[in-house]
Predict the 3D structure of the following.
Amino acid sequence: MSTTSAPAACAAVTPTATLGASAVRRGTFIKQFRSPGKDSGIVCFDFWELVVAAGCPFRCSYCFLQATPSYVFGHYPLSGAVFSNWKDMLWEVEQWLTAPSPRMLVVGELQDGLAFDGVYRSLAGMALTGMLIPLFARQKRHRLLFLTKSTAIRHALRISPTQQVVFSWSLNAEEAARRWEIGAPPPARRLDAARRMASEGWPIRFRLDPIIPFQGWREGYGQIADEISALSPEMVTLGCLRASATLQAHAHRNGRDGSLFDMLTAKDPGGFKKRLPRGNQIEMLQFVHQHLDHRRFAVALCKEHRTIWDAVGMQFRGCHCLIGPSADGQAHRLQVEAGILRAAP
């Protein structure tokens, strides 16, 4: 399928989901996230992203998209839009699936993974999940992951479950979500959606990120950790509040509460991001890790420095986000090749 068609319109996320008038289109739908590099000490690997839409209808105060050039300069609407040249996206996915080595493709790193599912149904006659899941279900090498705060699972529930597709919910403590995740479904509803998908046979994961030290955080994160453990996900990823140098200013510009970034009074050792004070960061991660039943599922940290892994008392065995928790050997080999881990003597 040609990727040189004339510029197509970009559909704003509205209840009617009609095509907008702006001449915005997506060139390449699949891109590889580039980690900060081995010299930074940040544990992260170059993973694959599928950009199914621009922006997000939710208004999280800490959303990093606010500080990215495409939204700062108005190329894409921050409130969310779907590209009408989506057929090019499907062609790219089919080509990506021909790679011989197992990989995972993430939907939701640069937009919410499920918030646009119904919009695709209105625009194209088929939900996004209905387009993508069958492509992965017919093979056994690669996996697809939907990362989301949405509870829009209606269309996915009509599809037969497959182990090649994972649904992962971004969660937070109820108080943190109420204050800083404006417009997103409450965590209790996200947990209900995950519970429903798991009961139908779908693999589920959770991302508890960003963990924020609000007053009463122990009670809030202890409760959500217990609720996560009760669902026995295949893995849980943890991360503390962090931000680029300009994110607070952009949050204020977008009318969002940027005061939470006043908590970030330190930087990670590699200077990658502004961070919470190291002691607070370690205390919170240790607390949540101890509350999770990590004997039954994998627990990992997201984009944290190697010294934080050591201080929290967590063993890093390779980035499970690449494929899955059963892929320790391959993940370890890939991390050694990238210089993130050292080879055994």
Observations:
- The domain at 10-14+25-338 is CATH 3.80.30.30 (pyruvate-formate lyase- activating enzyme).
- The longest helix spans residues 217-230.
- The radius of gyration is 19 Å.
